[in-house]
Amino acid sequence: MSFREPAFLVALALVPLAAAFYVREQRRRRRAGLAFATAATMPSVAPTRPRWRRHLPMIVYAAAVAALAVALARPEATVAVPNERATVVLALDQSGSMAATDVSPSRLQAVKSAAGKFLDGVPDQLRVGVVTFNHRVRRIAAPSRERDGAETLVRGLRPSGGTATGEALEASVRLVRREARRGGRRAAAIVLLSDGESTHGRDPIPVAREAARLRIPIYTVALGTDTGTIQVRTRSGATVQRTVPPDPATMRQISRITHARTFDAKDSDQLSSVYSQLGSKVGTRKEQRELTAGFAGAAALLMAIGGLMSLRWFGRLP
């Protein structure tokens, strides 16, 4: 929480000062009462005393003064609100290494599940596009508020071929720029998921630098473990086992260049958690909300409650 007029917080000092004054006055009144009756005869002189109730209205009044002081300081809070003018492009790797089963039931099935939850969870007004790729860009769904095209591409993912990360990023950046030309400057982000080193096409690092120049953050997810393997058929017809570790170093470099975050996902639960975080991050924006009215209303309510307590129990206002 922050304050537009923090100087008014000095008024909070009135609360302990008033409390000290109140305690002193209570002691003075007790001493004045004992001047007319001893402690032993006090029960017969004043058989019914309010005890703790006589203090409660003043405690409520003190809380009201504190709330009013905070209201005068014009408090603000940063809240996440749906980013209705944002564009997000999911760049999803469907290379042959995505058939590895080190992420249960397989890397590709985990991606399908997490991407589906992402599409279901982000705000309806968010424009979402999808780029699928292996050793080249396979299919593209242009950013849209409708999810049918993106969901169709996610469901149709099949593992094959190599990895062209740079080509996928270039296609994703083009989609974002096209959206900007059509609808004006929009908040935009790319979410890149890949499980291996780029083996085909252009180098992804220069593409990341171009995205940074255009202020397009690229969030990266390196999927899989170093022990992931797939079965590969050689030219002679034999089948061999090949290790397919992820490439987190390159993914970290891409996200760092574009001032975004990178994630490592080693199992399906972790991948779902990552996509949930990303959905919250790219589907919302931070906004300052002033809380003055709430604190002022609380102060007024507390004052009314304190007054009602005093009238109900003592027939007067303090």
Protein model, in words:
This protein has 318 residues and is of the alpha/beta class. The protein has two domains: 102 residues, no CATH class; 199 residues, Rossmann fold (3-Layer(aba) Sandwich). 45% of the residues lie in helices and 21% in strands. The protein is built from ten helices and eleven strands. The strands form three sheets. The chain has a six-stranded mixed β-sheet with strand order 5-4-3-6-7-10, with helices on both faces. A hairpin with a 5-residue loop joins strand 8 and strand 9. Helix 4 packs antiparallel against helix 5 and helix 7 runs parallel beside helix 8. The longest helix has 23 residues. The radius of gyration is 32 Å and the shape is elongated. The two termini are 34 Å apart. 35% of the residues are buried. The model has no long low-confidence stretch (mean pLDDT 82).
Relevant terms:
Rossmann fold; three-stranded antiparallel β-sheet; six-stranded mixed β-sheet; about 325 residues; about 20% strand; alpha/beta; about 45% helix
